[in-house]
# Entry
Amino acid sequence: MPVAPRIVSWNLTRRCNLACSHCYLDALQRKSDCGDELATEEALRVVEELADLAPGAMLVLTGGEPLLRRDLHQLVAAAASRELMPVIGTNGVLLTPERAEALRQAGAAGVGVSVDSVDPIFHDRLRGLPGAWNGALSGMRAAREAGLGVLMQTTLFAENRGDLEAFARLAREQCAMALNFFFLVCTGRGVTQTDLSGADYETALSGILQLQARHADVMIRARCAPYARRMLGLHAGQGEGAYADWSSACLAGRGYLRITPNGEVTPCPYIPQAKGSVRRASLREIWEGGAGFARLRGETPGGKCGGCDFRHSCGGCRARALAASGDLMSEDAKCAYQPSPDATPEARPGTVPVEAVATWTPEARALLERIPGFVRSRVRTRLEEAAARESAASITLDFMRAHRPKGAFFSALRDKLS
# Structure
């Protein structure tokens, strides 16, 4: 039985107030809803199915521009009432103080605002609207003042890849708890954009990893970039904290799914082929039995990815492989890594022996269950590794508090552990 998804991205609408040249959804500037989008009643049913399938998952409600969806607050409230973690993915332009406060009251945990340049001119040109950059920053300010968590989302291009440090400064100035760098996957209108070369990809990713080391108060991460673990020299099962999972490879179809505006389900936003529709099957049926999901979980990638000494801890970007070759499980040709001549393909890691894992006191276990589901397994792994290092026989409330996560991104978790 596959594990439940930890993160779900839901494109609620194709409507948008901008016309971004790199939009993977090819969203539309229009004044009325697209006719095939899920109605409120259908969407509320999907929320219920998702809560049953993936308790505690992070639910990213995006678009298009989700603030143009008239029932957004109702969907947020429904998700929060079922203990999902709703986060709004927006361009920020329409996020007024009133809307931000209403979203917080409905139960939203935060907003992810797209900022693709430290230069307003480049951002506005990319987004197709003068003033879009100022609107994004105003939206972040409104969210912050309403008490919502703020994440800054940035897509890297050849034109902005040299501005990593400037992006980090801007994120800190905006009091963002996280800065996510997304590497372009050429789908939707993104096929018109200039992707990074393999060498530039490596350089940018190395810079992001160094940036995180210098700015510990902001979580800085690369998305759609599974090479990070290989660049850190961490094989499956190695590492601590944020790198402790047995694999940080592409999450598509294994810990992540996407729902389109009309209810089709895909392994990620950059894998456009539907593996099912919530109008014809339940979300659980699609997640557990969809052919594409089964391939992603059960097959080893082909080509150089399949023979790599990081084939499980990295494995390449499946969406990029699909875009380049038409085969979901082919090699990721963007990767410039060349294993040493004596390297052997990485073995699939085993599980930690039961006897090596410390026991949990009932009070500690109850507190663990209160942590949002999308990070619960990572927190559990981190604490069990710490207990093993320190030869602790059990994990107690005091042990959890002594090892609570650091950094602005985990402020909500620190509150739970205090």
Remarks:
- Residues 188-194, 240-247, 351-355 have pLDDT under 50 and may be disordered.
